[in-house]
């Protein structure tokens, strides 16, 4: 059995192995943190003995014919409400020197990367030694408590494998037998995917991706040197100075389409690799690949004429494939399974005696998937807060395990300190309720679990005031090592002690946390600005059927236990920018964008038109819906029109009336037999139009029925009250 968590690994078939630790910077500095999942292994090796909390026990580490002293500490991580083990040897200079000497490849790589980070502004992730260059320490039990035998696995140089994205320049680069990338962008900054050129060495293998397929493979003949931009690239906007690699291109016949291999390569979790978790290709130039990835690619494409220099040795092939079978990383559920999982969630909700309108659960899921911030709006008592709780419970997130947190918003909240925390008079940071959840969610043992935060009565205070920091940081999401990370939430000025910096330093919004706000719109609450609406999907709970009664258990289907196997990737976004999805869903993106362009033309009259942020969110929603087969395209767009466009409309001017009528015409379509003459209705009574939706009626054949019903209500409020808004109920 294989157990793996981040930099630790164990095969239970290896006798006396406590665990295998991947060499990282902490190994050369002071020791290593031991994940909770490996505490039982050390406890067994120590024959049931362990240090007392806050204390340490001396440890002997045996390597070859020498022993080295270290200390096993048990510390209290108050922020995570748990104890932690650390193996420290920061005072043992002899052991440190040994590790630097034995693992000189990792040490050199890490220190060079850290120097680069200090020397320039290249936005690079935390230094991680690539998997195909990684080195390891094996800890073995000796039969004596607190005495461990060490074995070292060191790097044996082999050609690295790289992936290069080439667009219009591929033919010019192929004919010249080169790769070329600028040193700096137009703002004078270094970019990670250009800096990788400096690591390419003679003999390395490069996969050349262009126009949705791998079309060439090449072997490097000369490592990178600084060179001016080739004449064949004179028409590009890049700067003149760059890095040039010489390589021999071989055409792959047939070429290898992305869809042939992306799902299998994603399972390898290649560090800083070319694919994001949505299965598309990351934007950039030169990315790391791996020898194992090359073997998987070749096993999937036996019909391709792979050249001899790409063929691995048989023992390496066997090792790669065995590793692929045994080490199962955390993966998202398959697209085809999503419908069944959502049906099980609905069954769980029905078993609790609650019912929601058709497709609301699917809509709620797609909205969270597109953006981890959703607003549930509507009249009091319609089940908004209950929906969040039941949805979370279905996925195993409860108050008891602290994966579901309800935060009642107070009317006197005026700044982010109420949610995030503050520095007290003693200089210690006092975390707010949301910060506590973030700290817990980012613990290594929790990173695959979904965490839900429900901000109840969210608009009792002004959201733009107390939620401003989170709204801003939410927009800094970016891919780092196949994870979504954000900028820091807690100002360093608030972290005045080493303990606070260790717990809260670098804390952003974890990718496994999902924010849901519930709102009522009445005289006690505040409206939302476009800044908030742009960053959230708004689901409305105003149309209620009181004649829904509890159903018997025989109505339920499916095995709810399956839901407990889901990880946070069930909900986490696969795309952050449109470029992440455009390569594989171009036609749907273009269709959706053309719809939004038409609607934007109407909204411009009242300065309510949308920008790229809303466009991307709507496109992501539509893509997920198509991938999972949840709704027909028109129905999915109806929900997006209702949730992302209509909340922006309010006012009393005649231009608002014109926009409502034009949108009504779009929403009704041409198959309902309803004529909307905007010019006539601008001056005439519009009640014959909007009263078609009175008393819960819904005319048949309407293209976007949800949006049409809401528009009819808004038009009626404008005509009868002289003012209208999406939020009036």
Automatic annotation (TrEMBL):
Under Gene3D superfamilies, the record lists: P-loop containing nucleotide triphosphate hydrolases
Q: Which domain of life is it from?
A: Bacteria
UniProt cross-references to Pfam families, sorted A to Z = AAA_5 (PF07728)
Which InterPro entries does the UniProt record give? ATPase_dyneun-rel_AAA (IPR011704), Methyl-DNA_Rec/Restrict_Enz (IPR052934), P-loop_NTPase (IPR027417)
Positions of the ATPase dynein-related AAA domain = 374-521
Question: Per its record, how is this protein called by name?
Answer: AAA domain-containing protein
Task: Tell me which species this is from.
Answer: Paenibacillus phytohabitans
